[in-house]
Amino acid sequence: MEKIGIIDLGSNSARLVIVNLFEDGYFMVVDELKESVRLGQDMERDGFLKPQRVAETIKTLKMFRKLCDASGVNRIITVATEAVRKAKNQRSFLDEIQANCGIKIKVLSPEEEATYVYRGVINTMDIPKGIILEIGGGSTKIVYYNRRNMLNYVTLPFGAVTLTDMFGSDGLKPEEQANKIEEFFTEQLKGIDWLSEVDPDVHMIGVGGSFRNLFKINKMVHKYPLDTVHNYNMLTEDFLPLYDMIKVLDLDKKKKIKGLSAERADILPAALAIIKSFTSYMAMECFTISGAGLREGIMFNQALPSTIEKPVSDVLTYSLTTLVKWYDCDEKHVEHVVNLSIQLFKQLRVLHKFPRQYLKVLKVAATLHDCGMRIKFYNHQRHSWYMILNATLYGVSHREIILAAFVACCHKKEDINPADWARFKDILREEDLEIVKKLGVMLRIAESLDRSMSGTIKGINCDILGDSVIMKTEVEGDAALEIRDAMASGSEFKKAFHKNLEIL
Fold this sequence. Notes:
By secondary structure, the chain is α/β, with parallel strands linked by helices. The chain is built from 21 helices and 14 strands.
């Protein structure tokens, strides 16, 4: 296993992520460090990186280098974006970093940066057609893709830091400053011809630290029960009151907003003005926030070079396989339980009548049902519940993650804590409790049918006859243990499906 460090040197912040690369194309982030360096600040006047900012960057990169060395990092990949890209003193800056930190920086072109952002999104989100708005400190990227192919992109040479600098020195009140940025950004959008060709039903995806801060603020306001930013959906009508509230505040009051990073308080209104302008211009009723972007694009390219040519075909399966490897689950047992769960779902469809989307929920729960054993065997279903709720899961909605966590929690017994369920009342639906119980019974039976973890039962065929379900097993070897264990779920099966269970 190789360990790499990825340093993203942006106009606002510098961020290091340390990543374990598995041998077979998977990866996991194991450490992170972020510093606000404001490298792009005050560049608008003469186009030069300022000595104070350069000194702060060198200090930060030395810290990053020390952490990489202490963590056993094999190699460091460092990229720089808009501030360094347009700096008149770029060459001397790069040489100074090399001499002082021993770090070689690759300055990304606008196309390379947009492509990395796109790859970070397309390999972690199951959204086949989207328009990405990525707000950085010194630039804003807009990327349009359809059928998982990148069609158009543009990099506008201003972001949250540069726009704050541009409109912050005119003595304007905070609200007037935000309105000026809105007007300015809208004029830039009017100059992008291909935006008029974007499909009206395209899905907007927000990328960058400002979007992540927006999630944190909205989470506080609405008491949202999950900490997961990736795949968080936000209605424009919920965004607008937050924007109207924040844009009128002075800096001291903005710093007191719960969920807002103090180091981002001064530049967030500019970022929100960009979002307001874009959602209005493109008539977006909602947007989804991505927790993955440029750095994840680099990670995928390093771990799975094939993604340079073609994105991951099944985002969810890739994500689940990563977690199975990371949690050191028994891969053959996991695969067998997933297959048996899917067979049960399909063969009992006449009873449960669930649409296909719930097969995804069952797949997540079946794949990760035993991950809680990494903490403790006893009551590990409760640990699995917590771990699924907090895992890095791609290709599923927040509601599907919550449902899968509760289904996994039922794989030993019906173990739904009413207080836990009540936490998610604003996300779950009235009928979801019954759905979870039925899927939980299916998972419990599927796991029982591989109780010895030997793959003895190869398949099942269910016949529904009167008040009974006759489950015929396809067996290689002695399956007495498996059948006995599965029959222990008979009472729960009857409670869920109103049928007696017989296993042959």
